[in-house]
Specification:
Number of helices: 5
Helix content: 40-55%
Number of domains: 1
Strand content: 5-15%
Strand order of the largest sheet: 4-3-5
Distance between the termini: 45 Å
Mean pLDDT: 82
Order of helices and strands: EHHHEEEHEH
Number of strands: 5
């Protein structure tokens, strides 16, 4: 789940990861998620514009805004905070598998992934890091019983 207040950061992070060559399935999911986040961001912006208008936002030659200290300020801030706290379901996280200190999109980590720390922070709720599944030792399993 991504709070509306973090949509822009997640979108930037996905675009940064999208500049690297990744498995086709991962790439398609990144593109689909980027589109979904962009659509959600537009909806949030439309709602925000409505809040500004409803609470007597004025432009004074610039973009419309609700001015602190005006009667509409307190209700605007309350509704704005509620809007930004709403969450968007981004689906299951992208999984990075760890093997021998390297991370990849597949369990074997044949093609290690590198991600800048700032991108990693911005992808916080979109990533899950897993250790590869250990193969069960057939000899030990066969001796049980």
């Amino acid at each position: 789940m991504i709070p509306n207040s973090e949509l822009e950061n997640r979108l930037k992070a996905l675009r940064a990861c999208g500049s690297k060559v990744v498995d086709m399935g991962i790439a398609m999911r990144m593109v689909t998620l980027q589109r979904a986040i962009s659509e959600r961001r537009q909806i949030v912006q439309t709602v925000l514009n409505g809040l500004i208008e409803r609470h007597d936002g004025s432009s004074n030659g610039g973009p419309p805004e609700v001015v602190p200290g005006t009667p509409g300020w307190a209700p605007f801030v309350k509704e704005h905070n509620e809007l930004m706290a709403e969450e968007f379901d981004a689906g299951p996280p992208f999984v990075l598998y760890e093997k021998d200190g390297k991370y990849g999109w597949t369990e074997g980590v044949e093609a290690p992934v590198t991600i800048a720390p700032n991108v990693m922070v911005d992808m916080d709720d979109l990533l899950e890091i897993r250790a590869p599944k250990e193969k069960e030792d057939a000899t030990v399993a066969g001796n049980i019983g």
